[in-house]
Amino acid sequence: MRLLAVLVTLTALVRSYANNLQHRYHATFRACKRAPWPEWTAAAVDPHSFVFAAFAEFGGLVGPHLSACVAVHPCNQHVYAGFDNIDAYMRFYVNCGSGFADLHIKPRIAYHSPIAGTEPPLWKYGGGPPNAWHRNPWDVGGLGRIAKIHKLANTKESGTSYVEGPMQGGWGHNLVNMQDGIAIFDFGPQKWSWVLARDWQHRALSTMVRNVPEIILWGKMKLPFRSKALSVKGMDFRDAQTLSHAIDCRWWITAPSMKVSLAKLVLHIRTLGAVLRRVFKDTGLANAYVTGMYLSGTKAGVSVKLSIGQGLALRAGPATVVGLNALTAPFDVILTAVKGASDFNSSVTLDFVPDSGDTPLPLHRRTIVLCEHNIHCPPGVFPSEDDFSFVWTCNAGLGVCLPLKDEFTGRMRCAPYEGGIR
């Protein structure tokens, strides 16, 4: 049974009772605690009389303890309806053009308003939507920007339907598939979750889940964040909020509070680990933890930002680029994969704050480009830390791209621009 169809039907029934003062069920309504505006007229339905009389057509599938409420705006008659204790797994399906969301959830709480909209209680009473991180995958060396997740998606905070409850596992269950399979979120079974669906004009879906979903990118690359191998005594990728915007195929995942072994991540999420092991020495990985994670995806590719809770020693090549043998304080590392790739590319951006005892640096950002041949190095437009553009060459011994020095002057050779050399 499709949940959205049930919500639409139940909302119509509740509205008919609320608008009819003479109806025998009208006087038994209770208040909607999460109605959008407290000044709305509110009432509720006795669970037993309401279920057996009005919901008999569903054959008891929605559960024997169902209760309902309704709020009607006194001026425009917009309806806000809520339902508690739906005791059955139902299919929450949203068609988004060439993409879809297909979730199997037991909605302990469900709220629906076709016009007025509802928002997650966590947002309404907990400080609003979370901050998310966005970065263009072609912005090599860029740090991206942070903003409220709904602002990045250019959509509303509220939606037409809100559902809260556990997700049922099973093959093909709990998938969010972006356009043409560019990105698939496989949520798997979840002990707790909520889902917010926007209207047909915006077609954006927000979720919060206990465990970060597994992500499959363009049918080639898998990021198995739900792997049991990553979880040790409650340390795992947890409490993630996602937003997928189907119209322009953009998506975000934000999980700012976690504790995951960096050594386990390197070992079990190999597409990330293969790059990280070329930047950091193995010593120290076992004692380091990922304390936060942000993902940003578009049609062009995906960017991942990992917050590392302590400093790490750098390999010789990256140390040459950064100018330090080790990072001695918590830092962020940014990795990128362009659409269609099988692995994350070789450019890694470090965002860190040097200790006071370190040599002063003009910026707290360094981008390391790993290489084996010159073809792996960026063109001259790739910026250095002082905003000049240099000619880059691969130092095969160190395995990184470095600015090419003039053999006569010893100075770094600048890249050509618009008819000349800087």
From TrEMBL:
Protein name, as recorded: Glucose-6-phosphate isomerase
Organism expressing this protein natively: Micractinium conductrix
Keyword terms: Isomerase, Signal
Gene Ontology terms for molecular function: isomerase activity
Signal peptide, first to last residue: 1-18
Highest taxon in the source lineage: Eukaryota
